[in-house]
Every structure is written in structure tokens, then in C-alpha cells.
């Protein structure tokens, strides 16, 4: 059953829906944070079906680790044709797509793959709300009752993030990665590090709301899986399927925002003309083109935009858009298997880059640098890249924040470290509120 409504005050609607979610043990909330509503949609190739999607209630659920997880998901998908499915593909599924391994420790405790068929799905585009499935629980969202906020403190004790890799060790590793590049092993490696906090109690709902105010991003996400939470402010699309069209929008190239509009324009120009950043971007674009060509019709894989400069909270990012037409004999999952993990989070060549990543990183990435999103009833899908994201295990009281940058021959270790700090600055600020 599908019901349609017109929402007069979207802010109040979201607030009431958010309060409803506090009693749900499993839910997924995806929010563009009005990003597209504030942009000139003719300036860049924007692709978005919804401004906001939320689902809760569990009809069926699948969670498993790498091994035969993708096969299990294929069976799950076949059993639930015509249903919405929400969840994520974790980075370590690479081990069953390619002959790879992950032996580093993981403290977050998330499964490598998680999807569920919800009882209720709400989609919002403009002021039009559509509810799929059971709408009973949403009746209070449309009432005139006042909105009450929790007065629970956001944090019960001061956050003290620890670095999994010391700065000096990080700088040494970047030099070793440059040596791999000099020796011809790879052209580029996406090297990531973890910051973490232990024995920490937070209110995930308050953290997500704080992050949304400080860093509203077009692929923001808030997921609860019982005692585990994904709190994300991603701005990167991994892969979207619309009928037989595939869209990938890799990010490579970052610079901070300025203190005013004049400085912003100067920084945007610096990023656009930075040869190192352009080289990083074009290498990943070529990798994405190669991935999509494995499942797309010959001659249909195109670069719709190269070196697009997009403005986000705290940073400017260089984004390129690659599209292709899916072969008739291929399906959406084939496209995911051909392109996962996304090139922007591995490097090139992809397999060798992932082997080197395993050698030099000292924790599993898990959900981080995986993909989170949904499959619609018609088989179309949209997934982000899990970056700028907090992973919180409430039972273990463990909070994780990964961040990385692309290492190339021209990389300066100190600048790469500074780029990592720029990327997580807004996330850390949200936690300090």
C-alpha cells in the first residue's frame, strides 16, 4: 500500500519522525540535508530521486560476514523481489570478490553485510511524502502535538580520541607508499587511519542531529542495528542505478573552505588547477570507467563531468561523474560486484592497491569505505561511500572514526596528514557540541 501526503513544514515533520525512531531497534535514515534544494541543478550533473528516505520495522533481515555473503544477498534479493531493502556492503567483502584477505583487528563489531526489508518506508521529494507499507506508527508525525526533545546529555564523559597510528608512523608509512609507487607497484593508494575512543557513552541521536547542523551533506545517514549505530555525513555517491543507467561520482581532491566568499573562490581555483589533485582524480576516473565497462554496453561508458568543484560544509571537493548503460544480461548486483570496493577508497591498480592497504593499515575498515543505501522495489538502487562517518558500538562503548587520503608520487606526507584532519574537522566539532 502506498499513501501520499503533502508536508507543510518539513522541519517539524523530520523532528517528529526522529522522535518516533528512538523506540525502533532497527532503522535507516538517509537525508540529503536540503543540499540539492540550495544548488543550481544545471551547474553539475546531479542525480537524486529523494530529498529524504526513512525506514523502520523489520520484516526480514540478513547479516553475515565475508565468505559467501554476496551469494546470500543474491538469494535474499530473489526471495524479496518487489520489496524495499536497506543496508550496507562492508569494505571487507572485497575478500570474496577478489582473492584477498583481512587479518587486521576490528573493534567495531559490525557485520560485513547487513540488509533488511522494512515494514514502513517514507520518501520525501519537495513537499510530497509517500509512505510504503504500514503507516500506523506514522500517525503521530502528522498530528498537531508539540515536539518534545530529550534532555539527556550528549556525552556522559569527555571524548578523548586516540590515534591508531601515531603521526610520525603515518608520515613514515606515506614515504613507504611513495616507494611502492616509484617501484611501479601502484599509481595511487588510498591510505586510511582510525581514531577511536573507548569506555565512552554517547547519545547517538543527539550526535547525528549535531552533525547534521554542522556538516549537512547530501549523503548523510543514520542507521541503528540494535546496539550499533552508523552516524554519517558523506558527500560521495558510490553507485546509482536508474533503469539501465549506472552513475558513479568518485571524489578525489580536497581543500578547506575559506573565511569568506573571496577566499572561497581563490581556494576553489587552487583546487581546480592543482596538478596533483587532478592526477588523483583522473586515475580514479579511469579505474571507474574500467570497472563499469565490464558490465556496460560497449561505447556507453562516458565521463559526464571531469574535475567538478563542489562546495560542502568545511571543504571543497573535486568530483567527476561517470555513467554507463547496463548490458541486458547484467543486473544491478553484477554492477556492484564489478566495481566494489569503489576506486576512490582503494587506489589503482585496484587489487594491488588493496593488498598494500592490508599491509600498512592496522585495523579492518569494516563498514567504513563500504557502501550504504537502498534497493527500490523496481531493482534500482542508490549507495553512498561510507566516509566522514562515526561507528558506535554502544555495548562495547567504542567509537570509531576512520579517515584517509590518496597517496601518489607527488604526495607530501605532512600535507596528507593535514588533509585527513581537515576532512574530520566538522565531525569532531559535532562531537564537541
List keywords for this structure.
alpha+beta; globular; 20-stranded antiparallel beta sheet; Anthranilate synthase; 433 residues; 29% helix
In the CATH hierarchy, what is the class? Alpha Beta
H/E element order: EHEEHEHEEEHEHEEEEEHHEEHEHEEEEH
Basic shape: globular
Ends: how far apart? Answer: 41 Å
The main β sheet shows up as:
20 strands, antiparallel
Which residues form runs of ≥5 with pLDDT under 50? 146-156
Mean pLDDT: 93
Query: How many domains, in number, for the residues?
Result: 1
List the total number of helices.
10
Task: Report the C-alpha radius of gyration, rounded.
Answer: 21 Å
Number of strands: 20
CATH superfamily: Anthranilate synthase
Q: Determine the strand fraction and express it as a percent band.
A: 25-35%
Structural class: alpha+beta
CATH architecture label name? 4-Layer Sandwich
Fill in the CATH topology. Answer: Anthranilate synthase
Helix content: 25-40%
Describe, in plain words, how this protein is organized in 3D:
The chain has 433 residues and is an alpha+beta fold. The protein has a single domain, classed as Anthranilate synthase (4-Layer Sandwich). 29% of the residues lie in helices and 32% in strands. It is built from 10 helices and 20 strands. The protein has a 20-stranded antiparallel beta sheet that branches. A hairpin with a 5-residue loop joins strand 17 and strand 18. Helix 4 packs across helix 10 and helix 5 crosses helix 10. The chain starts with a strand and ends with a helix. About 3% of the residues have low confidence.
